Amino acid sequence: MRKDRKGQNLLDLVPEKLHPSMEEKGNVTILVENKGIFNRFGQKFLKKPVQSKIQLDPLGSFIWTHIDGKTSIYDIGQKVKEQFGEEAEPLYPRLSEFIKTLQKVHYIDLK
User: Fold this and answer.
1) Residue 68 and which of 5, 19, 42, 111 are 20 to 30 A apart at CA?
2) Are 102 and 80 in contact (CB under 8 A)?
3) What digits encode the pLDDT tens for the residues 41-67?
């Protein structure tokens, strides 16, 4: 379907998580450590948290729980279609954008 910059089909790639997460009542929260000099300054002097908590909606949570480093994006899309049906449409454009966003902010890596 869509191709990334290297010419590979995005749907054939396998995403792998780079951050831990926790699940509560079916919704996933991704835990992201705040690193870097400005974050350390904020933590020390402005009482900013060491970790940020990124909460996902039900669709994003479902996708995140199926990212296991073994399942392709296409296969994840098929599972989303089974679970959410028409609610997830347009499925693959939405899924592609979500995966690209997760990769851009370094929450996942694509193999």
Assistant:
1) 5
2) no
3) 888 888 899 899 999 999 999 999 999
Give all domains of the chain, ordered by start, each with its CATH number: 10-29+58-110 (1.10.10)
Kindly write down the DSSP assignment for every residue of 79-102, as one continuous string.
HHHHHHGGGG-SHHHHHHHHHHHH
Rounded Cα distance between 86 and 108, Å, is 26
Q: Are strands 27-33 and 51-55 parallel, antiparallel or unpaired?
A: antiparallel
Rounded Cα distance, 106 and 109, in Å: 7
| Contacts with 24 (C-beta within 8 Å, 6 or more apart), sequence order | none
Q: Please spell the DSSP secondary structure of 44-56, one letter per residue.
A: HHS---SEEEEE-
- Which residues of the chain carry a pLDDT beneath 50? 1, 4
